[in-house]
Amino acid sequence: MNSDAGCTAGPPTIAVIGFSARAAAQSAKRQGFEVVAVDLCADRDLLEDCSAHYRLDDPSWPDVINSKHPTATLLLTGGMENRSGWVDRCHRHSKRFGSTGIQLESMRKLANWEKWAASSDLGWPKTMSAEELESRPIFLVGDSEWLVKPFQSGGGIGTIDFAVRNQPLNRESVYIQQRMAGETIGVTFLSSLVGSTFIGATAAWTTESSATDRRYVYRGSYGPIPLSKNNVEKLQRFAAIAGRESGLLGLWQADFLLHEEELTLLEINPRWSASMDLLDVGLDLRLVEEHDASVRGRMTSNALDQLALKASEGSLGWPERMLGKLIVYAVHPWIVTTSESDRWWSSRWTMDLPSELNLCQFADIPTAGTSIPTGGPILTVMTSGRGKESVSIALESASSAVQLLSASHRL
C-alpha cells in the first residue's frame, strides 16, 4: 500500500525534487514528513533522511512518483524552475499539490521580472534577450559592463562576462544583463491562496576565483541578515504582486543586489533555494510545514499574518548567532574513500545548533566511491558564530582542510 495514499494514519509525504535535495529533505524530515527524494547527488545524508530515492537523470521518475506517491506534495529544488515539462508530468495522473509548469514559466519571464520590480519600487538592471541584442547598441558603455546569463542553469553556473564583441550567443538559452555594484542577497518568500509574504534574507559569499567560468558560481551564504523597514515593505509588495500574478503557491526565492540601501532585482527562482535552511534554523520558521500548508490551501489569513510579523521582526537587526555555509569545490578530480566519507559523517550537520560557536560540521556528504570531477562540489561546510567575520574564518579554514585532503588523493 502506498505510504502517502491517505488510507492509513502516518506522517504526510513530500517529494523533494531537484539537482540537490539534501537541505530541503533534511528540513522536511525534521518537521515530521516522510521524504521521497529525486536528485542527482544521492548524498549520504540525503539517503539517511528519505524513505525512497530516485535519480533525476532517469526519465521515468515522474511516472514512478505518480505510481508510488500519488498524493505527495511537491517541493522543488535547484534547476526545476527550468524543467516545467517534467513538473507537469507529476500532475498528469493525480491531484498533485505543488507548482505547475505554467506557474514556473510565469515566474521565469524577463518581462514579469521587470514589471514586478517596477511595481514594487525595486531596481531592475538593463536587461535584454540575445535576440534584442542585435538591434540595441550596448557597446557604448563597454563590453565589460555586461554579463551573459543562461536561462537553463542555476547557482551562477554558466554566467560569464560579455567580453568578446562578436561572441556567438544562443538566442533561446541566454540573456544579457548589465553588471551593477552591490552585495548579492537571496530573499525567501511564501505564497498562498490568502496572500504572500517576505520570509527573510541571506547574503552570498563573494568568490575569489578570477576565472571567467567560475567567478559567478554560488559559494554559499550567511545569515539571516537585517534589512531596513523600507526595504521589507517593498519586498512585501513584490511578494504580493508576483504571487498573485504568477499563481504560484509555496516557497520561492529571488536574488537581489543591495547597494547603498537600495534593492535591485536580479532573478526569481520559484523553488527551494540553497540558503533557505539557514533561515529555517536561524529564525525557527519550519518552512516545509508552511510550504505544505500553502500549496494544499490550508494556510489561513491569521497564520500568514503571524508569519509575516515574525519575519519582519526577525529582519530588524543582526541575530545573536549567525549561520553560514560554504560549498567546497574540487580543484582536482577525486574519488571519495570510505574513511573520508566516514570522517565527515562523524561531524555531520543535523540542523541542530551546537553549543560551541564556530564549530564546523559537514553536509551534502558524498558516499564512498563517489567520483567528483574538477570543479564539481565535494560537500558543504556549515557553522554558526557571533558575526560574519568569525563565521567566514571558520568556514574557510575547514574548506582548506578538505581541499588539502582532496589534493593528497587526486587522480
Explain what you see:
The chain has 411 residues and is α+β, with helices and mostly antiparallel strands. 31% of the residues lie in helices and 24% in strands. It has 4 domains: 13-98, Rossmann fold (3-Layer(aba) Sandwich), CATH 3.40.50; 127-178; 183-314, ATP-grasp fold, B domain (D-amino Acid Aminotransferase, Chain A, domain 1, 2-Layer Sandwich), CATH 3.30.470.20; 322-408, Aldehyde Oxidoreductase, domain 3, CATH 3.90.1170. The chain has helices at residues 22-30, 44-49, 61-68, 84-90, 101-107, 110-119, 130-133, 229-246, 276-282, 287-295, 301-314, 338-345, 388-408; strands spanning 13-17, 34-39, 52-55, 73-76, 127-129, 146-150, 160-161, 174-178, 183-192, 195-204, 220-223, 250-259, 262-269, 322-329, 334-335, 361-363, 371-372, 377-385. It has an 8-stranded antiparallel sheet with strand order 13-12-9-10-11-14-18-16, with helices on both faces. Strands 3-2-1-4 form a 4-stranded parallel sheet. It has a 4-stranded antiparallel sheet with strand order 5-8-6-7. It is globular. The model is unreliable at 209-213 (pLDDT under 50).
Give a short summary of the structure.
The chain has 13 helices and 18 strands. It is α+β, with helices and mostly antiparallel strands. α3 runs parallel beside α4 and α6 crosses α8.
